[in-house]
Amino acid sequence: MSNHLPNQLLLCPAHPTRRRAPRAGPLSLRSPRKVRHRRVVYDQRANRREIGAAVRTLAAHITALLLAGLAIFSLTEAAAAAVTPPFGGTVWIGSSVLTPLSATDLLTVTPAGMGVRTTYDRRSGWVTQTAYLFNSTFTGTGTVEAIVNAEFGSVAAAQSEAERYSRVVGQLPRACRLNVDALWIHRGSDAFGGGNRSLLIHTDYALASWTFIEELLIHECAHTSLDSSFGGTVSAAAWARAADADPGFISTYAETNPLREDVAESFLPYLAWRLGAASGYTASQLAEIHAQIANRIDYFDSLRLNLNPVIATASPATPPDPAETPSPAGPPADAATPAKPQRVRWWGPFTTGRQIRATFTPVAGVVYGIRASQATATAAGRCSIVTNTKTGKLSAKCTIRIKSSGSWLVQITPQQAGAPGPPATKTLLVTARGG
User: Fold this and answer.
1) Which of 16, 128, 339, 380 is 20 to 30 A from 315 (CA-CA)?
2) Helices (H), 83-228
3) Are 231 and 181 in contact (CB under 8 A)?
């Protein structure tokens, strides 16, 4: 008789009921020790099998997690690519949403003496100081107080600044001027600002960015009159719902500052989309705008904003497809606004003297004047129109003589029957040299 238990009768961990007691016999005193030895050997093998199974299971789980993470990463990358903002900052998409030829609601700019006012100046923060005051009146909205920093030095210089920026403010949509009570006008190359029922203007920055002056002020007036952060027309909750339904933000600037900039960054593209081709945006740009912020556009439409004098209706209709938007018709036959010059080239000043010259293609039958201004000086000149005897084409040449060097803001102004018309499309900053 064998003294060993058969292997098939060893304890199986999965079936403990199959345990068998060792047989009694002469060697029964040694049998339990041998059984224990065999149990230990079996347990070690079973443990190795269990550890191996656990390692394989863990490896499978890790592999699954890695694959899931890779899939999520790929989806995230694809989603991020799908909602990348099409523009960096919407002010700089184009400079023709409004131009100096656009209609303005400005009626009068009246001096109101000097007074103490608290304004914000980016060069030094909140300041309370004596300033030149002017009352600017507009069609469709209330009077705006233009507060001009005393650093401009004289009533005449301050009034020139008040008139310059009040005219542009009058071009803005009335819904965007609704909460504007004051213009804060300072020198300096710091950025503009909106909110606090005001528009902040730094004139050196304005002159350096003059081609986009209207677009800059549309952005800022959207802060002041539309943004819910400043008590504007837009509902924060409704805006959030519209934004959530859109693929993403219209610009990187809005994406980086969503609570502060999304409304202001979206309003200018909305206005451009409503204007269609008349905005100067390309069909591709208009299509990108609608694809990115269609729900925000619908929300702006739902507010029934008064967009006069930009769009002559207080109740916007559904615009045509941007890609099919035709060019706008010209002004009515009896309108006093002439067509804009087709081309303007600037020289100056010549080394023989302090002189600024301009030449451009005029509109037949329209007389033009030219004017240049600094903070403390102005100059006016003449424009003559000649006809090329060979081609029959018209050309206009304008000349201004100035008494001092430095930076001059130059405007060409069309006139009808001797009455000043709106400024022409080209308003440029010219730096004159001495000589």
Assistant:
1) 339
2) 155-171, 174-177, 203-208, 213-225
3) no
Least confident piece of the model among 50-64, 260-274, 298-312: 50-64
The pTM score is 0.58
Element (H, E) at 430: strand 427-432
- Strand pairing category for 394-401 and 427-432: unpaired
- Contact 222/192 with Cβ under 8 angstroms? no
Q: Average pLDDT, whole number, for the chain?
A: 77
pLDDT of residue 39: 57
Q: Which residue has 């100067």 as its token pair?
A: 280
- Tell me if 137 sits within 8 A of 153, measured CB to CB: no
Closest-CA residue to 311 (of 287, 288, 284, 279): 279
Structure tokens given for 89: 């900052």
Pairwise CA distance, residues 253 & 224, whole Å: 18
Buried b (16+ CB within 10 A) or exposed e, 361-396: ebbeebbbbbbbbbbeeebebebebeeeeeeeebeb
Q: What is the 3-state secondary structure (H, E, C) of 120-150?
A: EECCCEEEEEEEEEEEEEECCCCCEEEEEEH
d(CA 414, CA 383): 10
Residue 254 contacts residue 273 (beta carbons within 8 Å): no
**CA-CA distances (angstroms) from residue 172 to 110, 213, 308, 411?**
20, 11, 8, 20
Task: Please give the Cα distance from 329 to 86 (Å, whole number).
Answer: 29
Rounded mean pLDDT, 287-300: 96
- Paired strand residues for 109: 136
Half-sphere exposure of 123 (CA within 13 A, CB side): 13
pLDDT reported for residue 396: 78
φ, ψ dihedrals at 204, nearest 5°: -70, -40
435 touches 353 (CB < 8 A): yes
Residue 170, exposed/middle/buried by CB under 10 A (0-12, 13-18, 19+)?
Answer: buried
Are 345 and 330 contacting, i.e. CB atoms less than 8 angstroms apart? no
- Could you give the CA distance from residue 115 to residue 113 in angstroms, rounded to a whole number? 7
Q: What is the CA radius of gyration of the chain?
A: 38
CA dihedral sign, ordered 296, 300, 302, 303: positive
Tokens at residue 133, please? 């005051």
- What is the SS3 assignment for 375? coil
What is the distance, to the nearest Å, from the Cα of residue 409 to the centroid of all Cα atoms in its chain? 26
In whole angstroms, what is the distance from residue 160 CA to residue 147 CA? Answer: 12
